[in-house]
Each structure stands twice: as C-alpha cells, then as structure tokens.
Design a protein that fits this description.
alpha+beta, 308 residues, seven-stranded mixed sheet, 9 helices
Length: 308
C-alpha cells in the first residue's frame, strides 16, 4: 500500500486533465490525509541546494545532539547503572530540530543557508496556496476561502503564519527503545514536507495499520492538519503519523506549516455545516491546548478549546 503520488502540473492542463488532478487531490485528502506531489513547480536545482545547506547545517549541530537529553537517557538505559526504565524514553524524540520563520534568528552557516531557505520558503508558500485553492474547489468553497479563513478578519495585516521545521534523525543504536518522533496529528493547516529521498522512517496510521510514506525523489509530501479538518467539517481528517528511529542513515526532514494566524477564528465552512459539528474557536487558544496534548487523542482537544 503506497501513499498517492500526484502530478501537480496536471492542474494547469486542459479541463479533462485538470479534473483528473482535482479528483486525485480529493482522494488524497479524503482517503489518506497524506499525498505526494511531483512536477510541483519548485525548481529541482533549488531543492538540491536546500538538501545541501540543511545537511551542512546539521554537521555543526551534531556534537550538540550527542549531548542531548534523548542520547543521555538512552545511554543510561543501555548501561543499566540506575533505575531508569524504557518508559522514561517514551516521552523523548530522537530528533535534532530548529525552526525558521520570518521573525526569528536563522543559522548563519553555511554561508548561503539564509538565501537558499528564504527562496525555498517563498516557493513553498506559493505551492501551499495553490494546494488550498484545489481544496477550495473540491469542497465547493469560493476560491481563496481557506486562505482567508486563516487570517484575522479584524486586522488585514494579521496574515496566516508560515513556519519551517528543519529536522534530522541521526542513527540510533537502539531504535526499539526510542521513537524518532512520537505519533501525533498536526495542529495547523497545510503541511508541506521535503523528506529524505534515501532514508525512510515516516509512517501514517491508516485503518489501524502503520503505512510507510515511501521516499520519492524531489517530491513534496502534503498532509492536512487539525484546522483543515475543522473547516471541512470532518471531510478531510488530520492523520496520525510518526517517524521511526533508524539504526542506519541520518534522515533529513524539512516540514513547512501554512497555519492560521493566532487570532484567526476557525470554524466549519457554512456550506459544509452538518452532523460533525466542530466548534468555532480562536486558533491561538487551540494551540494552547495542543501544546499540552500534542501526543494525545485529538478529539478531546476540540472539546477542550470549545470550553475556553
């Protein structure tokens, strides 16, 4: 069983070809919650450069990871010198990570890191908005509905948030004892992942089974977050996913999040209101709940934010 791979350039074809692409995207959203895009318009030379600068940036962080809490805990457990148990490692992720957004400090090395990642984020943001427009069409919503719903109606300058998480999952001596990234659904809107095309480990939960998200060279993996589930009134479910720790290889993962403004009010689209009945809430309030319950069942999060 393989995650759908969609030729995104078909959206720019004739009416028949475009309809085929929209149907494939609808299937990806409704049946999987994850799908991969090829021929997405992001220059392949840029993707290669992103891969290069992110891998080089990790080399400068590698020694810090070796001194990190997950490594220390695993070494203590393997040594068996104290009362530490395997349960103590279940709240750790075998992951080195840093976040990029418009207002924080980015790594200064390698020299072209900032320039490359700025260009990449610009391209990826445009791709996210095209994906959301396809979702608008498939859901029977006005073009631009999802993007507009991610903004704060009371402030034209309060636009959706776009962040990028650069992760590496280094080789792990005991992948049976620790997870690369624990199972969760994503809190926000549309997630765009440029994953490693050689080292696997990403899995989604489908029909009670964990399914590998197969590496596809130069593809961008798309998944829908909790806010898309709400806006679609449950038609597009956010999906549980995880990253396995691997004994060999150093998995690179660059995930970008097109999320609502913290002040945006999220609710089911009026055209889609019905039996599911998700509550309306301010996204910032949802994030306060999510920060405490990220790795727990998602349904109580919706109820908790409803009570705020």
């Amino acid at each position: 069983m393989a995650i759908p791979v969609i030729d995104f350039s078909k959206l720019d074809g004739d009416s028949k070809t475009k309809a085929e692409a929209l149907a494939e995207i609808a299937n990806g959203c409704e049946e999987w919650g994850f799908f991969q895009l090829v021929n997405h318009g992001i220059p392949l030379e840029l993707l290669e450069q992103v891969k290069k600068v992110c891998s080089e940036s990790y080399k400068e962080r590698e020694q810090d990871f070796k001194r990190s809490e997950p490594v220390r805990l695993l070494n203590r457990l393997i040594d068996g010198n104290d009362s530490l148990s395997a349960e103590d490692l279940k709240k750790c992720d075998w992951e080195d990570v840093f976040i990029l957004h418009d207002d924080n400090e980015w790594p200064s090395s390698p020299l072209n890191f900032k320039e490359t990642m700025k260009e990449y984020r610009t391209e990826l943001k445009k791709l996210a908005e095209k994906v959301m427009e396809a979702m608008d069409t498939n859901l029977g919503l006005q073009k631009g509905y999802i993007k507009k719903s991610f903004s704060n109606d009371d402030d034209d300058n309060d636009e959706p948030f776009f962040g990028t998480k650069v992760s590496h999952y280094p080789p792990c001596p005991r992948p049976d004892l620790v997870t690369g990234l624990r199972a969760h659904t994503d809190a926000g809107g549309v997630i765009l992942l440029y994953q490693d095309d050689e080292v696997g480990g990403l899995q989604i939960l489908k029909n009670g089974r964990w399914i590998d998200v197969q590496p596809v060279k130069d593809a961008i993996v798309i998944n829908t977050g909790d806010q898309i589930e709400v806006i679609s009134n449950g038609r597009y479910k956010s999906v549980w996913h995880r990253v396995l720790a691997m004994k060999d290889g150093n998995r690179r993962s660059i995930a970008s999040f097109y999320n609502p403004s913290y002040k945006a009010t999220i609710a089911p689209a009026p055209e889609l209101s019905g039996a599911e009945g998700y509550p309306a809430f301010v996204f910032g309030n949802y994030m306060s709940v999510y920060a405490k319950q990220k790795f727990m069942p998602k349904e109580p999060r919706f109820q908790a934010v409803k009570a705020l």
